[in-house]
Amino acid sequence: MQSIPYFGKFESMILRSIPISVLLVFVLSVFSPSAIRAQNDIENDIEKLEKFLKNLDQNYVDEVETKAIVEEGMRRMLEELDPHSVYLDKDAYERANEPLKGKFKGIGVRFLMINDTMTILELIPGGAAEKTGILMGDQIIAIADDTISGIDISSRNVSRKIKAAESDEMEFDILRNHPDRRSMTLIIERSEVEVSSVPASFMIDNRTGYIKLERFSASSLSDFRDGLDELKKEKVKNLILDLRGNGGGYLNMAIKIADEFLEDRKLIVYTQGLHQDKRETFANSGGRYTDGALYLLIDANSASASEILAGAIQDLDRGLIIGRRSYGKGLVQRTVEFSDGSAMRLTISRYYTPTGRSIQRPYEQGVDVYREEIRQRTLSGELLSADSIDIVDSLIYFTPSKRKVYGGGGIVPDVFVSQDTTHYPEVIIAMRRSSLFDGFALDLALKEGELIKDASGNVNAFIQDFHLGAEQLTSIERFIAKRGIEIEDGALEAHAEMVERFVKIPLARYVFGREAFYQAMTAYDDDVVATLAAINEGTVKELGLR
């Protein structure tokens, strides 16, 4: 949900005093459900709204900010229609669009708050920071004399500050701790930074490839093809496409990527709405990966375009869906832009998978209940057991191989993998919450990174052979103590295997690069382990899939 701009006490009083029904007349006359469509009189409603606003402006006892009233009215009324029709002010609209462009204007770094200080984790090749001499591990103390250290500063706020700067040239106060502690001031000029939507593409073993797709952006098709082409050079036979955490993006990109797996004239998706005729979209590219086995990983944060792709693959018996039930967004929005740079995203139709499923979750009880449903999945035990998924018997569909698939709210995976994080001990939770594993791994990489790289040779050997010894566990204890976190004696030794995992994964990134982070993660990933088991057991062939 987008944040609501601050209103002063008077404006808030005015907003509360205006009956929502007054403005509902206007919005519902334009964006009406079919139940009231016959009663609409657009010209009269517009005239009424104009008269209403003019009287507020010209006759009310105190000064009224009509723009704030109109924007808040639009925002609230769109929420009355469905959870995904939204009004976005200019700043919110720009922020929402940025991840979908495949590039952004910035300094070309990835950073994390470690020990209350913004710390550089990674330099994007070719970015302004790399050219200026910023190094991994550098800490940003201030931007343009504005201090940004402290527990109230977040990575998101720092990103917004950099992107919102009026001048491309920005002054950064940097603290460098390695090899010698010193401070410096650098002028960095912002530039266009290209960001791939596929941060990782690699072979897990000699038959199985893995691609992580973070979003469906303008560059996703070319990003995906680049990754797939590299795997095909390695003779990939089984492809794992990771859509976990992928909240969607451009619908056409999901369709084009689905097309890469399907034979010509296979139905991928169709959309339909009150004002939108049924529109079917078929595969037509003669895709690049139509014969190999396919496995898609999903979770509760896989939404919209991710669900279009997963739904098509499942309905057409093309691959196996593994993980947990997806989000359940089956509404299609059209963006309507306004002259002041703001916009609304208005739901115009529903999309349906090839079997005719609508996977949109019910939202008749309102936005709050709709959003709460995701949290309730955890409380109900759905993340632990497939039996806890609420299946609607009247919304069961059948694929060409006669497998059951389910409508009514998200994509239900073919292979369910439980997600149980309750077994983490308190010391592990506290360290993860404070980014101490990242901090220690970064410190270790800065001091011993070259030695670790030389000893391992490559990331696969590192994942297989690198282990934390007693000396390094003691170093972690000292690292924690310096940051004021108390732990019981022997706590780290008692959970040494878990500590090693959470150090090893970020350490792989800092020593071998970003893709190595995903390579290390898959070694401990329950969903990937379940997928490899399904591959070895021949589950795809057993279910009659290709």
Q: Can you describe what's shown?
A:
40% of the residues lie in helices and 20% in strands. With 546 residues, it is of the alpha+beta class. It has four domains: 9-81; 103-194, Roll (Pdz3 Domain); 200-334 and 349-420, 2-enoyl-CoA Hydratase, Chain A, domain 1; 426-512, no CATH class. A hairpin with a 5-residue loop joins strand 19 (396-398) and strand 20 (404-406). Helix 13 (436-456) packs across helix 17 (496-512) and helix 17 (496-512) packs antiparallel against helix 18 (514-523). The two termini are 39 Å apart.
Largest sheet entry = 6 strands, antiparallel
Query: What level of helicity do the residues show?
Result: 40-55%
Regions with little confidence, pLDDT below 50 for 5+ residues? 1-36
Number of helices: 20
Tell how many strands the DSSP assignment holds: 21
Mean pLDDT: 88
What is this structure, in a nutshell?
The protein has 20 helices and 21 strands.
Search tags:
globular, 4 domains, 546 residues, six-stranded mixed beta sheet, six-stranded antiparallel beta sheet, single chain, 20 helices, Pdz3 Domain, disordered N terminus, 2-enoyl-CoA Hydratase, Chain A, domain 1, alpha+beta
Layout of secondary structure:
Elements: H1 9-17, H2 20-30, H3 42-59, H4 66-81, E1 86-88, H5 90-97, E2 103-106, E3 109-114, E4 117-123, H6 128-132, E5 139-143, E6 146-147, H7 155-163, E7 169-176, E8 182-189, E9 191-194, E10 200-203, E11 208-212, H8 220-233, E12 238-242, H9 251-259, E13 267-273, E14 276-282, E15 293-298, H10 305-315, E16 320-323, E17 331-337, E18 343-352, H11 367-380, E19 396-398, E20 404-406, E21 415-416, H12 426-433, H13 436-456, H14 459-465, H15 470-482, H16 491-494, H17 496-512, H18 514-523, H19 526-537, H20 539-542
Parallel strand pairs: 11-12, 12-15, 15-16, 16-21
Antiparallel strand pairs: 1-18, 2-9, 3-4, 4-5, 5-6, 5-7, 7-8, 10-11, 13-14, 13-18, 17-18, 19-20
Helix pairs in contact: 2-3, 2-4, 9-10, 13-14, 13-17, 17-18
